[in-house]
Amino acid sequence: MMLGLLFALQVIGLVAASSSSPSDTCYFIPLPSIPSSTDNRTIPWGEPTIQYANGTTCCSSLDEVRQQLDIIDAQLLQLLSQRASYVREATRFKATVADVNVPSRNQQVIQGAVDAAPSVHLPQIVAEIVYEGLVNSSVLFEECIFNTYVDPECAGGN
User: N or C, where is the chain less crowded by C-beta within 10 Å?
Assistant: First the structure.
């Protein structure tokens, strides 16, 4: 999934502008302990951090940012739909409902995303929390699929 997201971003010509700033520490776990800012900044503040493959930068307004987020969200939904199809397919290879939730595999998937996050310039905290939710919800979905299937070869149904 991580590599698929990176590929999708490359296909649309989006690359993260490289920088070396104090905010770079926000991309790794643990997040730094920083006091809340009391600044009242002129908008927009800072320099654009997104650079397209053609050399232009994003974004000149909050509306432009939100428009791009909406496009990415639609792409994410498609990828999540594909992932859910494979989760459902994986259920067919589980003999008992207890086989659905495998904590060691769940942790492997989550840790893999956290470890891969820096290579695609994704904050590790985002990868960790998103993948925890993704894995936990996938387990619930898979348990539902398992429990609703009536196996004609088993006496008594489910």
Answer: C
pLDDT per position as a tens digit, 25-75: 999 999 999 999 999 999 899 889 898 999 999 999 999 999 999 999 999
Q: CA-CA distances (angstroms) from residue 12 to 56, 78, 93, 98, 120?
A: 13, 15, 36, 41, 15
Token pair 């060691």 is found at 104
Tell me the two tokens of residue 124.
Answer: 């590790």
Place of tokens 């290879």: 93
Per DSSP, the residues of 40-92 read: -PPSS-S---EEETTS-EE-SSHHHHHHHHHHHHHHHHHHHHHHHHHHHHHHT
Torsion from C-alpha of 149, 151, 156, 158, nearest 10 degrees = -30
Amino acid (one-letter) located at 13: G
Burial (CB < 10 A; 0-12, 13-18, 19+), residue 49, is middle
Tokens, residue 73: 């969200």
Check residue 66 and give its pLDDT.
97
pTM for the model:
0.79
DSSP three-state, residue 15: strand
